[in-house]
Amino acid sequence: GDDSVDGPDVSILSNCAAGRNVYVQWRVQGRFDNAAFLDDDILIEPSHRVIVSAGVVIYTFAGTVVDRIECYYDALTMLEQILPPSDTAEG
Question: How far is CA 37 from CA 63, 64, 68, in A?
Fold first, then answer.
């Protein structure tokens, strides 16, 4: 739903079913070409770098209907990729 990353490419790495759950491991990458907002109030200018994220989505079924969807990914790594590098060096 966000247009800050151009050309997102989603890959399904693996999937499996166990009991009522289906697990799907995914990876997405795209170029950070458009400005984005952090917490709806901090503008982040595009770096035009390729960013990558990976995670897993879990679908829980009640019969033949999906009853619950959970998605887990490393939000900190995603944030580190879009924020500009720090100008301060620790020593």
Answer: 39, 38, 28
Instruction: Tell me how far apart the alpha carbons of residues 81 and 62 are, in angstroms, rounded to a whole number.
Output: 38
Distance CA 15, CA 21 (A): 11
Q: Which of 53, 58, 61, 59 is nearest to 78 (CA)?
A: 53
Per-residue pLDDT of 9-31, as tens digits, reads 999 999 999 999 999 999 999 98
Q: Which of 29, 24, 30 is nearest to 71 (CA)?
A: 24
- Whole-structure pTM over 0.85, yes or no? no
